[in-house]
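Review session, final week

We close the course with one last complete record, chosen because it touches almost every idea we covered. It is Sugar ABC transporter permease, a protein from Cohnella lubricantis with 295 residues. Go through it on your own first, then we will talk.
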Amino acid sequence: MHSFLNRKSAIFVFVFPFLALYTAIMAYPIFQVFVKSFYEWDGITSPIFSGLDNYRNMLKDSDFIPAVKNGLIFAAVILVYQQVVASILAFIFTSRNLKLRGSKFFKTSFFVPVVLSVTVVGQLWVQLFNYDHGLVNNLLGIFGDDFRQAFLSDPRKAIYAVAFTNGWQFMGMMFVFIYAAIKSIPEQYFEAAIIDGASPFTLHRKITLPMLQETYKFTLVMSITGGLKAFDNMFVMTGGGPGGSTMTLSYMMFKSAFQKGEFGYGCASAVVLLLECLLATLIINKFIARDRIVY
């Protein structure tokens, strides 16, 4: 038994079941989506090959460009909010100069929204954003009624309000990644720098941030791709409205496939969304952490 485990073939034996499961659950459906994007199909009858018609129709669709734009705005808001807030909190809770009481409670509370259902969080913020009796507008109303905002019914503000909700919910996950990465940096690096007279700002700039390159690459990919493919927030909070202002490619895919019965068109939307996520990932991998840091 021991000699078998030492063989390279043993790796295949242990990996194969999970590889087969991944292929059945993930890879094969993705392949089928790509294939069905070239067909006209209602999900019931036999598909009819239509070539690139679905993609041509998508480019002509008046909802396509706004959907792509909304998705990029959504992803950008999430990216900035999650990365900035999570980084600040992680730096605070790993600081050597700040000893915060109840830090365990706060660190746990940051992660609580992550485990909640998107539906629950969405409905919570729908009530908080309510123009007449929502907590947010009640606080703004202290400065006068002119400060009240129609967050979810104003086409100019809705996408930002929904994006904030998503960013708020999943910020805790980014905090955990960044916090854990900072704690994993060897302590002797900081000790040596402190002996040399480095200030806290210098420690962050010369040690912490460079050592977090790989972590930031991962969290940036998570934030951007998560924002691009987000659907449930818009579905729960605005239904793609008002006036299509929160319509994204993922919502367009759902609407085409499950509301209009145009599964081929929906698959084409999914392929474009996948390519969009892959492009974002490639750009991040291209420009971040080019030089591998060795301990």
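Two points worth writing down before the exam:
The longest strand covers residues 39-40.
The mean pLDDT is 88.
Good luck, everyone.
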